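Before a computer can learn anything about folding, someone has to put a protein's shape into writing. The three-dimensional part falls to structure tokens, numbers that each stand for a local backbone shape. The protein below has been through that process, and both of its lines are reproduced in full.
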Amino acid sequence: MDGIEGDDLLSINPMADLTDFEAAWDSVSLGMPGEKPSQVGKESSNRVIFKNNDMQAYLILYRPIDGSEYTKQDIADILAKNGVTAGINESRFAAMIKKHIYGQEVLVAEGDPPVDGKDGYIEYRNDLDIKHKKPVIRADGSVDYTSVNIIRCVNSGDQIAEYHPAVEGVAGFNVKGRLLKPKRAREMKPMHTIGCTYDEETRIYTATMDGKLEINKGRLTVQNFQEFKQDIDIVFGNVDFKGDVMIHGSVKPGVTISATKSITIDGVLEGSNVNAGTDLIVKGGILGGESSKINCGGDLFADFVEYADINVEGSASANIFMDCRVFARGFVNATGKLGAIVGGDIYGMKGVDAVFTGNDVFLRTAISVGAKEKLQKTVLLFQQQIKSIETLREKIEAELETINRDMQLGTADSIEEKKKEKLMQSSIDQGVKLRDLKQRLEILKRSIEEAKGAKIHVADTAYEGCVMMVDEKQLYLDSNKRQVEFIKDPRGDLVCRPVRNW
């Protein structure tokens, strides 16, 4: 009969050894339980059952009515009639014949699944972990935020990475002989390199200069960075560098540190001005002052931040923010066992996450998230400026068109020719301004969109006296709140609600 699908009959372990398989049947009664042998025919009643998407075929034989025995050819014919053409295990049905195994499922054919190909990949040197690591939790429960995003340095001649080419997959088949294609493997394009080289024969990337390793969007770069193995004070002077700066010491009051990329400070940043193009990492913490300003184009990580005025384009993370003014377009994080925001004005556009806010002596602490009205006004201002520049450029293009027509007719004088030069330069200058404004507007709109649904999370206690703001909604706490979050409800009202399973 034709093959059928299903698991409706008792099966044996298809992975068992043949010896065990034979021994198991030495004590098994012959024939289907409750069925008379004389009721079964040799040709028509045998059954083939397909399982696991035709990857396995099980055979059920019935005792021949004439008392004869099956031959290997009989079994082969039964399998072929039911479409089993591949993966046949002859030793298994030979055992069925020898042991007179009737009325039971026996695995007689098994397909071979495909082996998927493996995409090509780059393996970096063990100590060059290019991903941002998670902050380390210290023994006292505080968070070592400075353990993330540390600069990775290499020397000229160092092996940076090795490319492992794609490995093609191996096709498989099912018991019906159908070819099963493997997942296709893909090669990676060689990375663009600066300050390093790629050898196509060895497939190895090697540094050609000393510097900081940077991987970004298919580009592998080794760049110069400035390293100082001392404290920076007013005697040493200010630091201004086009690239990354690493200071193996502290920064004393009265100094300005500027870099077009990241700044890493092993010690304490005290009463100084800092301008980082990307990330700012201060392992010893920040002690601000009345005159110090800190600007960061990426993320800020510090052990603590006290009495500081901080502007961050990314997120700001520290164990404690004490009486600070913080503006972050990303998140403000004060987590870990000791995470606290005490005093000051804290703004995290995408959200604020803290363990404690305020304190038990009612120190004024203002925390806000979401898109402030001032940002919406800035969007309108940018849009007005863009429209004005576009109108001006249209006028310039119209004048240029008139002058070009006069020059083609030969009626243009020297004054018009000089005016053309000025108009063309003005068009270029206005075009640069227009591109800059459009780019800034796009970033601002994206930030406002990402700020939707921003929340203030407090894992332990939000103390009385704190002022919580979401967008333009404000809530003054007249009592302590534990394990809560502040968020706008569907009606647009600012609510305080408990958070379970923190």
